[in-house]
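Tokens help. Our protein:
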Amino acid sequence: MKDLGNQSETILTNAQLVLPGEVITGHIVLRDGHVAEIGEGAARGGLDCGSDFVAPGLVELHTDNLERHMQPRPGVNWPHSAAIVGHDRELAGCGITTVFDAIRVGSIVSDEKKRYGKYARAMADEILSMQAQGALRISHRIHLRAETCSETLLEELAEFGPEDRVGIVSLMDHTPGQRQFRDISKFEDYVCGKHGFSKEGFGEYCDFLTGLHDRLGDAHEAGAVAAANRYGAVLASHDDTTADQVAVSAGHGIRMAEFPTTVEAARACHAHNIQTIMGAPNLVRGGSHSGNVAAKELAELDLLDILSSDYVPAALLLGAVQLGEMWGDMARGMATVTSGPARASGLKDRGMLEPGQRADVIRFGMVGGVPGLRGVWVQGERVA
């Protein structure tokens, strides 16, 4: 890196540059937080990348990773500031330079046995404060996961406003027997494993959730759509299963569909110009833990647009590389984790290696058939 007074410059040369639609051998100059120059062939000086790939920093739209840091073991509540820093550093180390932290809104507070409490406003305050203080290495935005099958969704949404960097609001409905858990036995395995319910307790829990949905579901869905419009956030659906559900999503103005569970839903999304997001762990492990459609199947049908790391941050780059190999087009595979999510979420200043874009850049090589990160820059500053 060269010191240019109040500017800084980094030159990466002898690299395979992942550009929009193509990969070329060349060099890139990062200056004063932006991409200043891209050229073919080697440049004098700079960091010799030894034919490694240099690509835009990864853009993550949906990750549950922060929750894992908040509660590393059942019943263990980690200090939030420490959880946020650990989460931030892990993502930076995986090549993610922009993240929409997925935070649940909508809680159950009336029944102690079924209770899961509210935390979104307090957690968002801490993330935003730490970002403003310069304590975080990557760019954080808020993704509110609006649980319509809950008791407190509307009051929790009312606690947020346009100033809160809420970039995405996704509509979730975990009523038993539909969407992600249309196979009730999969829902039973998940709930009993997570909450320790007995068979009898599971049946009572399903009845409780169904009653909540019947009483409050429609109002909660309408309220979440209105809240997203008030924040200026992009709307996303969650776990669409049928063409009818996708048609409802399109009527709400939804632009992204997180984890459609069937080929039918994915086809309907494309018919309505809704971008489909699939989990990179689903792709890497060869299928869904919930028994839903495999990401690889949608990729083979040209129905997969964006990858999310979901619950394994390191899966994002690995999944993109696997798609590049599957499609025979590394630029296309990498677009599912760079320009694709950036444009779908309304971010126009990142996600591509082009002059004027933010200097959010990663360098990686292939190690034993998997990508190994060798450098991560955010606005031109090396962070990992």
